[in-house]
Amino acid sequence: MRIRREEFERLVGRALDDLPAEFARAIENVAVVVEDEPSRELLLEMGMDPDHDDLLGLYQGVPLPERDSFYSALPDRIVIYRGPICRLSRSREEAIQEIRDTVVHELGHYFGFEEEDLPY
């Protein structure tokens, strides 16, 4: 499945727009960006096999529950990787669902959920 970068970015934006209002209001100081591929170095750093494992998204920051009242830092960052999602998806509908699932998954980390507690 192939989706042009501009369209992919619009789909990520739509996934964010479709969040329930109570969650959307709670998101503060988070940059959501699209990149084509995770670097080989990042995959190795995460203990993944760059030749066989796909990383769909990544949350970079300090989860909300771990912050104290003096917390101030650059914006947290959520990266959604276009290449792996497109390779995993067999149709446009699957890609849209995977984008939504990945956005929700990475926002779950922002809200402090551990990997095993996330639905996707």
If you had to describe this structure to a student in words, what would you say it looks like?
- The structure is a single chain.
- This protein is α+β, with helices and mostly antiparallel strands.
- The chain has a single domain, classed as 2-Layer Sandwich (Zincin-like).
- It is 42% helix and 13% strand.
- It has 5 helices and 3 strands.
- The chain has helices at residues 5-17, 21-26, 40-45, 82-88, 92-110; strands spanning 30-35, 57-60, 76-81.
- It has a 3-stranded mixed beta sheet with strand order 1-3-2.
- Helix 1 (5-17) packs across helix 5.
- The mean pLDDT is 93.
| Molecular shape | globular
CATH class: Alpha Beta
Regions with little confidence, pLDDT below 50 for 5+ residues? none
Largest sheet: 3 strands, mixed
> How confident is the prediction overall: mean pLDDT?
93
Structural class designation:
alpha+beta
Going by CATH, the architecture would be 2-Layer Sandwich
CATH topology: Zincin-like
Based on DSSP secondary structure assignment, what is the total number of beta strands? 3
Series of H and E elements: HHEHEEHH
Share of helical residues: 40-55%
Strand content: 5-15%
Number of domains: 1
Spatial order of strands in the largest sheet = 1-3-2
